[in-house]
Amino acid sequence: MSIPMSSPKPSRREQWKRTTQLVSILLRIYALTWQQARWGLLGTAVCRLMLALIPLVNMYLVTHLVNAVTEVITAGAELNTVLIILGMQTGLSIASAAIRSLEQMIMAALKLRIQAYIEEKMAEKSTRLPLVYFDRSDYFDSFHRAMGSQHSLILFDNSFMIIQSSITVIGYFTIVVSFHWLLAVGLLIFVIPSLVVNMRIGEQRFMQMINQTAIARRVSYLYNLLIGREAAKEIRLFGLSSHLIDQWRTSFMLNAKQKLKLERKGIAMNWGVDSFNNIVSSSLIIGLAWLGTKGRLSIGQYVALTEAFNSVNSQLMSISNNLSFMYQNVLYAQELFTFLDTPEEHSQQSAHALPLAKPLRQGIDIRDLSFQYPNQPFPTLHQVNLHIPPGCKIAIVGDNGAGKSTLAKCILGLYSASEGSVEYDGVNILDLDPAELRKRVTAVFQDFVRFQSTVRDNIGFGALDRLSDNSWLEVAASKSGADEIIESLPMQFDTMLGPMFDGGRELSQGQWQKIAISRAYFRDAELVVLDEPTASMDPMTEAAIFENFLQIAEGKTTLLISHRLGICKAVDLIIVMKHGRIVEQGTHEQLLRLGGEYEQMYQIQSKWYDSETAAV
Ligand SMILES: Nc1ncnc2c1ncn2[C@@H]1O[C@H](COP(=O)(O)OP(=O)(O)OP(=O)(O)O)[C@@H](O)[C@H]1O
């Protein structure tokens, strides 16, 4: 879908291909607008048609008015005709203003409708894309460009303007041609230079937008960092404000200078076009005066034609501007459609997703699984093999960066294997319906979300269909120990959490964690993944959570990622990971006997706990 723009001199074939692509984008926009707002579109078309005819009627009235006024002055005729024509002109102006207002109202509604539709589609698309896209900078570039291209869809407005102006101009041409064909040729000369200049500038603006996307994103990233909550503490603590503002200013100015250069070029070129048009316009008026000397024009016709020239000039400028805007908007719209056409998650496109037994019979098998992040030079997981029987409790341990969280995300189906497979009951995860799979799994991640919303939402988002079921909410809250926190809140489950909105109660890190764990429990899933859920909790709370966890995990397949090895004694299987591989697996006793990585980690931690106890 993306149109190659970099080659300075495209071949004829490339030009043809590019033109057909642009036309197909244009047709797609028309189809979309028609589908979304056909009555608005029809209403606008009718208004624009009437507005196109009004100047022609006015020209007719001006001719008669000037002639009638001349009669009054030179031959002492009655004022009646003048008054009647003036009355008609006033009526025409009022009608014209009313139609214009109506058209503006329809257009405002139409634009909002299209904007809502596009924003919804973009949000839908973002949530349906595979998670791995969010690790790619080109995805963010594409999203940023698509966001900035939304306005381009109102190019139907440009088309209407062009049609409206064209009808008026054709009317004027028909009248002008009846006086002398050379006058009509002169009128045509107006349009060509301004069209060429505007299209060139439009294309350069678009290319600039493409080239500046990455840096424009950095500018907005730095700005949001400066004004946002996330970095507020550290900016103050480390005194980063001036440094970050300097960085932001440098990036901003880099973009601004390039933009300014192009604007200057555009303004200078338009000045050239304006001067040229003034010369053409003066020549035409001289031509009119010459026709007058030949006795082929009345004063009224002379005045009306001069007005017509000025009007045609502005109408032709409007056509040329709208054509170039249309061209520019089609180029932008291409970015939007490129984003909207990005392929989604595997099975969402397939109607042949395979069913899954409930509960699982054979469990989960990971076969020769390798996974590489798009922005990493080497795979993060190498040839991982693991069998997880149904109902088995597994702890995954290992150094920082060993690949524990990545493995969990592959098992949850959030990342697709680069090589090998994850199978549920022998069915490749890629052949399962993602929506169906997600109903069967639940997780708490290290970087869980703090929804700036009610407690009910924060827990209930785990299973939307039970959002208003208080008894389920209470059970989920008590399992994680969040019930005590909720009890102390002014409106219990309906209390707003987080500082972002009025009346929101901020919680401590550990309290938020309990809420996030409740959310995971709220979904009654077969596979529960807890990725370091207790990192911010005090040891007493941690012990309680683990105890609870094991109790409620009875019968469920559970995967626990933790650096604290205390829990490992109570699980069925411990997996030790190092540099993206499983290096050891077994029970606590088996691994201690093995005397390998696990035993070393365990000894270090027990010494640490022992010395803590000794110190106390
Ligand atoms: N979103 C990402 N994009 C690129 N690389 C990533 C991403 N997330 C993790 N990695 C890389 O993958 C490797 C494994 O990360 P992972 O988070 O799976 O490790 P972990 O064992 O869970 O670590 P920790 O104990 O610190 O949480 C790391 O070297 C990291 O650099």
Automatic annotation (TrEMBL):
<keyword id="KW-1133">Transmembrane helix</keyword>
<feature type="transmembrane region" description="Helical">
    <location>
        <begin position="82"/>
        <end position="102"/>
    </location>
</feature>
<dbReference type="InterPro" id="IPR011527">
    <property type="entry name" value="ABC1_TM_dom"/>
</dbReference>
<dbReference type="Pfam" id="PF00005">
    <property type="entry name" value="ABC_tran"/>
</dbReference>
<keyword id="KW-0067">ATP-binding</keyword>
<protein>
    <submittedName>
        <fullName>ABC transporter ATP-binding protein</fullName>
    </submittedName>
</protein>
<feature type="transmembrane region" description="Helical">
    <location>
        <begin position="39"/>
        <end position="62"/>
    </location>
</feature>
<keyword id="KW-0812">Transmembrane</keyword>
<feature type="domain" description="ABC transmembrane type-1">
    <location>
        <begin position="39"/>
        <end position="328"/>
    </location>
</feature>
<dbReference type="InterPro" id="IPR027417">
    <property type="entry name" value="P-loop_NTPase"/>
</dbReference>
<dbReference type="InterPro" id="IPR003593">
    <property type="entry name" value="AAA+_ATPase"/>
</dbReference>
<feature type="domain" description="ABC transporter">
    <location>
        <begin position="364"/>
        <end position="604"/>
    </location>
</feature>
<dbReference type="InterPro" id="IPR017871">
    <property type="entry name" value="ABC_transporter-like_CS"/>
</dbReference>
<keyword id="KW-0547">Nucleotide-binding</keyword>
<feature type="transmembrane region" description="Helical">
    <location>
        <begin position="179"/>
        <end position="199"/>
    </location>
</feature>
<dbReference type="GO" id="GO:0005524">
    <property type="term" value="F:ATP binding"/>
</dbReference>
<dbReference type="InterPro" id="IPR039421">
    <property type="entry name" value="Type_1_exporter"/>
</dbReference>
<keyword id="KW-0472">Membrane</keyword>
<dbReference type="InterPro" id="IPR003439">
    <property type="entry name" value="ABC_transporter-like_ATP-bd"/>
</dbReference>
<dbReference type="InterPro" id="IPR036640">
    <property type="entry name" value="ABC1_TM_sf"/>
</dbReference>
